[in-house]
Design goal:
This protein has 5 domains: 175 residues, 3-Layer(aba) Sandwich (Rossmann fold), CATH 3.40.50; 85 residues, Translation factors (Elongation Factor Tu (Ef-tu), domain 3); 72 residues, 2-Layer Sandwich (Alpha-Beta Plaits), CATH 3.30.70.870; 107 residues, Alpha-Beta Plaits, CATH 3.30.70; 112 residues, Alpha-Beta Plaits. 26% of the residues lie in helices and 34% in strands. It contains 14 helices and 32 strands. Helix 7 crosses helix 8.
Length: 595
């Protein structure tokens, strides 16, 4: 065990984490020249294109230092706020962390939140200044920020470049010297932490684990503590660029286990593996059920594709256990699913994957969050969808989820960012100056206000310089109402939203104006109304397309023209009774981009 080093990389999106990992793999000759490509650990097309890590990966490297061979286990972590629970489990499986900071951008919000996670788990932090090859790098300024943040010496900070390979040997040397060896006992009962899992069509669910105590052999009878499921270890081994089987694995090792598990829900990230005959006394701490935070309806564009969409959802869930879905129907959109996502990026990725991997064209409704509704009878109901809200007369009060947001920005943009957060019903908790021109703002905000367009607005008002990170705090009472959209008196359930009383009138008015632009004109007038209960708060009318029926009349008496117009009027009245208003797909998406 004294020659094993387990470490992870923590960084903000686009600070060069995957590129630096490539250089480490190249330097330790883990990946040969033929298999080498950019961002070798990011296996999904989406990860490659967007330059973000969505799924965490683990890979083992061999490194020789002072004539001794060391086993380095790199546990890569996702870079986005939506996947912070997976990051926390990856960090729990390590003893050290490389803190990578972009020399051109400095410290960002995600860096700080993941750094706090690492410090909570007592990890040895190795600060690295990346992208030193760029002309606009500001090493002295960013080094001051790092020293202010973690209190290290200037000489502790390694200057590196993932592109050119500068400083890679220093990093590997520092990992061997600074990162402590795993603490655990080979003799103790088996205790292994699951930090990730993937689904393989032929082998079932493959769980990635780190052994804290004990040993595991092929053929052992094992048990997953949280789910109480029992299995036989069909294969255990280590992860390099592929999977390499081993007859046995001991405390401190990181690897994979295959037990022929068919459903992804049976393997939970953060669970503990132990032996069936001689189990460990208690599970590894820190386990949480992954809770979806954002809910949206996903419907096929063509209702005949419903079965195909259901199969696609099942397959997607095998690869991504944090996706939850249940069938629902809408009067406007037909049959579909109400899906739960970890956040907005997660929702976007699922949509993109449905399109690319399964060729499914879907309509996604307005995203919502989970509300706790207390009725006059004293019951508490969970509401995921505005149409599931009970009648206003039976509601006692509604609680909505609040988040603690960390925003780091240049001082020039403090004013606009504060205005944005206060518009979204935020409360300023504290304001810290990291340096003379960088500030950290902490706000409490309702989650329902940020699922629409908060992130996009934040980026545009700060010219891309503000970074944002959040964690869910608690549920707090709020004065919310259901805003319905009516077309010719018929409610379109897919356009309903739960909104705070103070914003309802303004939002309803803008919705009506936007729909007036998008709904095509018919042979009859279409009334678009926004309503709260029975009260109409806004109205717009899409004027009818008028055919000139009097064109054939020339000369003669006015009564001839009047007769034709009366006949047309009767026809329009009849048409309105049987007329059906078609709402185009872009109307559902336009709600998200009202501004």
């Amino acid at each position: 065990m004294k020659n094993i080093r387990n470490f992870c990389i923590i960084a903000h999106i686009d600070h060069g984490k995957s590129t630096l990992a490539d250089r480490l793999l190249e330097y330790t000759k883990t990946v040969d020249g033929r298999a080498m490509r950019a961002q070798v650990l990011d296996s999904m097309d989406l990860e490659q294109e967007r330059g973000i890590t969505i799924k965490s990966h683990a890979i083992q490297m061999q490194y020789i230092y002072d004539d001794q061979e060391y086993t380095l286990n790199l546990i890569d972590t996702p870079g986005h706020v939506d996947f912070s629970y997976e990051v926390s489990r990856s960090i729990a499986a390590c003893e050290g962390a490389l803190l990578i900071i972009d020399a051109t951008q400095g410290i960002q919000a995600q860096t700080i939140s993941n750094l706090y996670l690492a410090i909570e788990h007592d990890l040895e932090i190795i600060p690295i200044l990346n992208k030193m090859d760029l002309d606009n790098a500001m090493p002295e300024v960013v080094e001051d920020q790092i020293i202010g943040l973690i209190g290290c010496k200037r000489t502790d900070i390694i200057r590196a470049s993932g592109k050119t390979g500068l400083g890679i040997d220093d990093i590997l040397e520092r990992i061997v010297k600074m990162v402590p060896e795993p603490q655990g006992s080979v003799e103790a009962p088996l205790q292994a932490l699951i930090f990730d899992s993937v689904f393989n069509v032929f082998r079932g669910v493959i769980a990635y684990f780190k052994i804290v105590n004990g040993t595991i052999k092929k053929g052992d009878q094992i048990k997953f503590v949280r789910t109480s499921k029992e299995y036989v270890a069909e294969e255990v081994g280590v992860l390099k660029l592929g999977m390499f089987e081993r007859p046995e694995m001991k405390a401190g090792d990181v690897g994979y286990i295959i037990c022929g598990i068919k459903t992804a829900k049976e393997v939970k990230v953060g669970d503990t593996i132990t032996h069936l005959k001689a189990p460990c006394e208690k599970a590894i701490e820190g386990f949480e059920e992954v809770k979806p935070m954002v809910f949206a309806g996903v419907y096929p564009i063509d209702s005949e594709d419903y079965e195909d969409l259901r199969k696609s959802m099942e397959k997607l869930q095998l690869n991504d256990a944090s996706l939850t879905y249940e069938p629902e129907s809408s009067a406007a959109l037909g049959f579909g699913f109400r899906c739960g996502f970890l956040g907005l990026l997660h929702m976007e990725i699922i949509q993109e994957r449905l399109d690319r991997e399964y060729n499914m064209n879907v309509i996604t409704t307005v995203p919502n969050v989970l509300y706790h509704v207390r009725t006059t009878k004293g019951e508490t109901i969970n509401v995921y969808n505005p149409s599931g809200l009970p009648a206003a007369t039976t509601i006692d009060d509604i609680d909505e989820p609040f988040i603690r947001a960390n925003i780091i920005t240049a001082t020039d943009y403090i004013g606009p960012i504060m205005t944005l957060c206060l518009e979204k019903r935020g409360t300023l908790i504290k304001q810290d100056y990291l340096t003379t021109d960088r500030v950290e703002l902490m706000f409490d905000l309702p989650l329902g206000e940020i699922v629409f367009d908060f992130y996009d607005k934040l980026k545009s008002i700060s010219k891309g310089y503000a970074s944002f990170d959040y964690h869910v705090l608690d549920f707090r009472p709020a004065k919310l109402v259901r805003l319905d959209i009516l077309l010719n008196g018929e409610m379109v359930d897919a356009l309903s939203t739960l909104i705070h009383v103070s914003n309802a009138y303004n939002f309803g008015k803008r919705m009506c104006e936007k729909l007036k632009e998008l709904i095509p004109r018919q042979q009859f007038d279409i009334a678009i109304q926004a309503a709260i209960g029975a009260k109409i708060i806004s109205r717009e009318t899409v004027k009818a397309v008028r055919k000139d029926v009097t064109a054939k009349c020339y000369g003669g008496d006015i009564t001839r023209k009047r007769k034709l117009l009366e006949k047309q009027k009767k026809g329009k009245k009849k048409m309105k009774q049987i007329g059906n208003v078609e709402v185009p797909q872009n109307a559902f998406l336009a709600v998200l981009k009202l501004d």
